[in-house]
């Protein structure tokens, strides 16, 4: 068992509960943690025996390009996409952050974290 992480991914996207947020856009961050068996890739040095980081990034990029009202929904879509694309992955954890959310005061970021095991 092992973990693959993509941390600190940043995107400019058009998400938000309010229509105005979806028009002006904002900066978002995504941290992704994948639990899977890494022993075959470690022994073979073969990319086909593991989760390709580039494919993970492109999957997140695709989901970030599709507007959503809630960060929770974005996280859900990312997790489902990964579990569908990589059925051998055992668990996915994702954090989605919105930088400088429009709360009427100072807040560096709002963040949600979701986690799901394969088959749940």
Automatic annotation (TrEMBL):
Which InterPro entries does the entry mention? Dihydroneopterin_aldolase (IPR006156), FolB_dom (IPR006157), GTP-CH-I_C/QueF (IPR043133)
Q: What is its EC number?
A: 4.1.2.25
Write out the GO cellular component annotations: cytoplasm
Keyword terms: Folate biosynthesis, Lyase
Q: Please report the stretch or stretches of sequence annotated as the Dihydroneopterin aldolase/epimerase domain.
A: 4-116
- A GO BP entry: tetrahydrofolate biosynthetic process
GO MF terms held by the record: dihydroneopterin aldolase activity
Question: In which pathway does this enzyme or protein participate?
Answer: Cofactor biosynthesis; tetrahydrofolate biosynthesis; 2-amino-4-hydroxy-6-hydroxymethyl-7,8-dihydropteridine diphosphate from 7,8-dihydroneopterin triphosphate: step 3/4
Question: Has keyword Transcription regulation?
Answer: no
Which reaction(s) are listed as its catalytic activity? 7,8-dihydroneopterin = 6-hydroxymethyl-7,8-dihydropterin + glycolaldehyde
In its keyword annotation, does this UniProt entry include Transmembrane helix? no
Pfam families of this UniProt entry?
Answer: FolB
Q: Which family does it belong to?
A: Belongs to the DHNA family.
Q: What does this protein do?
A: Catalyzes the conversion of 7,8-dihydroneopterin to 6-hydroxymethyl-7,8-dihydropterin.
Tell me what this protein is called.
7,8-dihydroneopterin aldolase
Organism of provenance? Rufibacter radiotolerans
